[in-house]
Here is the input.
Amino acid sequence: MEIEENKTVVLVTGDDRRELVRSALSTLGEDFTDRIKKAKQIFIHPNFVSSQRPAACTHIEAVRGVLDHISLLRGEEILIGDASYHDTKKAFEIFNYQSLKRSGNIKFIDLNDDETVEGYTYTADLKKRPLGFSKTVAQSDMNIVVVPAKMHSYYIVSLSIKTHIIGSHVVPASIFGIHASWPWFHTGYKPAHMSMAGLYAEHPAQLAIIDGTQAMAGNGPIDGEEVNLRWLIASFNPVTADALAAYLMGLLPSDIGYLYFLEEKGFGPIEPGKMEIIGSDPETLRQELERPDSYPGILEWH
Here is the structure.
């Protein structure tokens, strides 16, 4: 697969997430317009990890800001969905996503019910184990991942790539009614990060929007402390977007296994000094957020 080299990241600041999304996409300019017009299928991927904790999930106004732009450019059907840990359909209802139908030609999809293409995860001894990957996501040529910026107790951060990969795997519901992907992915820190990187290399996303006005410090992706970092990132290179977000959260991008492995595969850059950052100076926004309790152990992926 040919890898598109893109070092550009837009970094805007403020508190109104819808306006920040609109501003960031306007800054991406004709490149964004052309990609939207040419796309055969647009899929918007929010994070619905737990409908019981709104702060852990993508705010509807961030998605509405994306639709504000797309609806001006095309009228074709736009898909929105996730493979929620709990109940995707319930999350759509609780978060009032149905109201987005006023903003465009929308179809909602529970990826837990989707057909699959071949996917995999690595076992503890680094052998591949088959696991179905969403056919809808795999076949969409404009995957737009819209997520809050969160710390994570297994991946250090939960940003665009984690949602795009973990939230696109179709796993059967347990007897408790949850779609737990962790038995397949949490086989050790190194294999987990290798799985993320390997799968992303096969099924990359095309645009990341990371909402730092809705961030989580500490023991994310659900139980951390809510914080407003007053920034939002957009980039056609989700690897670079995740890396800049991690840096702004006080982390070294190279300490995050999946980012390290993806840069080795040519999907970088992950160092801010090698990026083309449009907008605010990241050094004025960087904060040392509380890290998950498991942080020292996660670094064992090295």
